[in-house]
């Protein structure tokens, strides 16, 4: 898997923004009984399985992804502080 944002030249620092992302996944998975009963780790385990790709143990049924940039004021205060830190760190370079 390739990410274009990772291929930027170090001297070329990209602008950052706030994005609202929605992912709908539906897939069938062959797994040991009881493994999926730990609700605290369920999402992480399912995403790990899906990210490994299709094989004889996983069958994707539906995949839908939507991402759109939103106004910074819609972000939480914590996220806005992080955005300010990122922008300030670019000024130091």
Q: State the helical fraction.
A: 25-40%
**Number of separate strands:** 2
Q: Give the SSE order as H and E letters.
A: EHEH
Distance between the termini: 29 Å
Question: Structural class of the helix and strand makeup?
Answer: alpha+beta
Mean pLDDT across the residues is 83
What structural keywords apply?
about 25% strand, 2 helices, alpha+beta
Short characterization:
With 93 residues, the chain is α+β, with helices and mostly antiparallel strands. The chain has two helices and two strands; from the N terminus they run βαβα. The chain has a two-stranded antiparallel sheet.
Describe what this molecule looks like in 3D:
The chain has 93 residues and is α+β, with helices and mostly antiparallel strands. Helices cover 31% and strands 27% of the residues. It contains two helices and two strands. The protein has a two-stranded antiparallel ribbon. The longest helix has 16 residues, at 77-92. The protein is elongated.
